[in-house]
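Hi U.,

Before I forget, here's the chain from the pilot set. I'm dumping it here mostly so it's searchable later in email.
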Amino acid sequence: MTNWVKATVVENICWHERLFSLRVKAPLDCFIAGQFTKLALEVGGERFTRAYSFVNSPDNSIHEFYYVTVEGGALSPQLALLSAGDSIDVAVQASGFFTLDEVPDGKELWLLSTGTAIGPYLSMLETPDLLQRFESIVLVHCVRHQQDLSYQAAIKSLENDYGNKLTYLPIVTRDAPQGMLSQRVPLAISNGELARRVQVALNPASSQVMICGNPAMVRDAKGALIELGFIKNLRRAPGNITVENYW
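Structure:
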């Protein structure tokens, strides 16, 4: 049974007309970076819930959730209407196994994401574990339009904190500026462009890859990696591909 608590909205950041970050204050249980919880609102007398990953680090008391509004959706358009001081129900206990605890050691860590699925990686990058465990970390964020590349200030701050250990690679597939990578992630894996762009090894002998995003990207990227000799990471059989479908 889910235990719920009333959260108070601190801020609802509008990146553009369909992309938001909801920041709330709530007494939630401790969570691990990469996990998610549930948000709920009553709309027209009916209660709607949906799972959202934490963007904030586990030691931050302000909890942040990154979301896109879905046309005709029951919950996300209502979330976009919230403002500071409003209330929303949040599940107290977090869930999910898309965490660094589940990832074996390696030299290089690749964090592949599409759209709002960059959120759990931002939470992970705010923890000290990554800096200590891996020699190189590549954060890949693939979006359709350049305006979808949010959290740029936060990413810049992380790059400063990590020094040359962290490389950020944005990919825009529809209106990429000249010189920016515009291929889908699976193709960029297969043709070697992903590794060439950042000059970091993508090698089954030394690399760990986390994939989070739309199911088609996750499926195809996993397939491209398997073709290169990577294997899916399971608790009973450790490998080097750890995946999360983001909806």
